[in-house]
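#lab-general

N.A. 3:47 PM
ok so I finally got the sequence cleaned up, no stray characters, all 298 residues accounted for. can someone with queue access submit it? mine expired

B.Y. 3:52 PM
send it over

N.A. 3:53 PM
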Amino acid sequence: MAVGAAVLLALILLVLHFQNLPNPAAQLAFKAKRIEVVDRIRLALASASEAEKSAVMAITDEESQVFADQARAATATVEQTRQELEKLLEPSGTKNEQDVLAQFSQAFAELQRIDNDLLTLAVKNTNIKANSLAFGPAAAALKEMDTALARVVAAGGNSSSGADDLKVMHLADGARIAALRLLTLLPPHIAEESDQKMDEMEAVMAEEDHAVRQNLEGLAALPNLSGNPDLTTATARYARFTELKTQILKLSRENTNVRSLAISLNQKRKAMLICQDALAALDQAIQAEPIAAPVSPR
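B.Y. 4:20 PM
back already:
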C-alpha cells in the first residue's frame, strides 16, 4: 500500500509539472496578438494624421469639419486600442514592454493635446475667408472705384481750364494708385504669421488709406465736380472697400490656417515621431521575447 501511494503521488506531481510547463503555441499566439494590437494602433494613428492634414489643407468649413471629425474618430480608436494593449501587458508583458507602452501613452497624450488645438483652429479657415474677401468683393469694389475715377478724369477734359484738368487728373490718379497699393498689401498680411510684421503692414496701409481719402476729398472740393455722380460712386465704392478691409484684417489676425499649418508641420510632426518611435520599440520588444521550449520528461 505504501508503494502504491508513492507511485500515485509521483504521477500526480508529474501531471502538475507538465501542466505548468510553458506552452510554445500559446506563447506564440499571445505574442502575435500583442503585435497585431500594436499594428492596429499604428494604422489608426496614421489615419488620424492623414485626416488631420486634410482638415488643415481643406478650403471650406464643411470639408475641414468632416476631416477633423475623422481625425478625432481615428484618435479615439488609437486610445481604445492602447487600453486594450495595456490590459494585455498588465498580467503577462515584460517590464520593458510595460515601460515602453507608458512612454507611448505619455507621448500620445501630448499628441492629443496638440491635435485638439490644431483641429479647433483648422475648421475656422479665417485666412481662406480673408483671401476670398480680398480677391473677391474687396478687389471688385476698388475696380469699380477705379473705373468711376477714370470717368471723372475723362470728363475733366470738357472743362474750360487746363489747370483744373491737371488737378483732377493728379488727385484722381493719387487716389487710384494709393488704393491699388492698399489692395496689394492685403495678401501678404493674410499670409503673415508674425504679429509684428502685421503691425508694420497695417501702418503702411494707414498711410495709403490717408492718401486715398485726402485725394477724394480734394476732388470733392473742386467746384466743377460738385455733385459729380462718378465721384460719388468712387467715394461709395471706397467706403465699401474700407468695410471689407476691416473684416479681412480681423480674419487675418486670427490666422487660424497659418497657425494650424505651423502646428502641423512642427509640434505635431515632432510628437508623431515620438509616438512612432515608441511603437517601433514596443514592437521590437515583443518580437524579441523568446519562446520557451517544452521540457521533455526523462
